[in-house]
Amino acid sequence: MTGTARRTTRRTGAALLAALLTACQGTPQMGQGGSMVSGSGGSAGAQGASIQLQRCARPIGTAALVEPPGETSTSLQSLGLASPLPLLRLMMAQSNCFTVVDRGAAMQNIEQEEYLRQSGMLRSGSQTARGRMVTTQYVITPNVIFSNPNAGGANAGALVGGLLGGGAGAALGGAIGGAMRIKEAQTTLFLTDAQSGLQVGVSEGSAKVRDFSGGGGLGGWGGGVAGLGGVSGYGNTAEGKLIAAALMDAHNKLVAQVQATAPSDLYQQRRGSATRGGMIADVQGELVRLGYLPAGSADGSMGPKTRTAIQEYQRAQGLLVDGAPSSALLEHMRGR
What we know:
With 336 residues, the chain is an alpha/beta fold. Helices cover 44% and strands 15% of the residues. It folds into two domains: 37-118 and 134-148 and 182-262; 266-334, Muramoyl-pentapeptide Carboxypeptidase, domain 1 (Orthogonal Bundle). A hairpin with a 5-residue loop joins β5 (180-193) and β6 (199-212).
């Protein structure tokens, strides 16, 4: 190789190194781009939300969030991360695609308030949640999967070392190979219809980040992932920011799935499940107890008399009048 060719090759290698350093500053790639989970959401609207977060003009429905499986929680704890539910709640408040129904710690406080009311310890005229709780339409369960925690560095180091050549190229290539990390994370969100127990949607989210760690003779070049908010520690570590990006990717895909499902399809799924087993007989038993059906009518078959009785009850209680039995309707009746 001539001197001119060697100089050209080295200039090319230096340019490639600069490009690698620029590309590896740790910006999360959610699908094909970065993401950001931060800010707030509520009556004042989404504040400081990522432009990549899928938004809805009106909520698709109410949803309760369920803690991920035990092994996922253990893996997150090993990384110094708490439950991803607060992060998801922030996303959903900002996106306006699901109205979150709290069935966690806040529910325990609501039950305590009801106990105080029944004990006569609350001020006269105070209202509690009895008869005013919103029915959960969907249950959303997240899961986090980790993969390829330290891949890609060796190949990149070999490429740069080969282009620069000589002892300096080998040393610099080794430094890059030892310091570069390509991390990937995958998440899933499972959407279950709360009335029927049917899984009506599932989405997978992914994110990948390239960064440098440990210096390795690179003059202090460090990896940093673009800020994704500090909810539950997810803005303090590269792993947390990566998982946050993957969760947003899964959220966006789940919203697209549910929006593509016609409401009538979900209604038929709920109705078909509700009319199986002992659901009808249980509803009929409550209708008998409440005086909407005569004694001995709980035969488990869905006929016009049962439908009419359900409609009368729904109308009297100010509920949606559809004449269809459901677990939510049964729960409402049992609370009378």
